[in-house]
Write a structure and sequence with these properties.
Elements lengths: L5 H30 L3 H10 L5 H28 L7
Helix pairs in contact: 1-3, 2-3
């Protein structure tokens, strides 16, 4: 029988969390480099544009998802670091 400690589980979870944070951050950087804008600037540009550019809207929706994912992952990381976790 293998015994896994709560500390080991926490470390594995943190490793995966850091990997997911890195992926989301890299995707955000790709969009920033593509448009030479921060997300909020791009969001304003897309929403205020008189002409609908479906390519921009597609990128906006994808970028928005990565921004939200990144923020959620940062919160999870903070919770984990502060011991605000529950094992079910």
């Amino acid at each position: 029988m293998t015994t896994i400690s709560l500390s080991d589980i926490k470390d594995l979870y943190l490793s995966n969390l850091l990997f997911e944070l890195h992926k989301a951050k890299e995707k955000n950087l790709l969009f920033e480099n593509k448009y030479k804008l921060q997300f909020t600037e791009f969001e304003k540009l897309v929403k205020e544009s008189p002409n609908e550019d479906y390519s921009n809207w597609d990128d906006y929706m994808e970028w928005k998802a990565f921004v939200k994912s990144y923020q959620h992952l940062l919160q999870e990381k903070a919770d984990l670091e502060n011991g605000n976790i529950k094992v079910a």
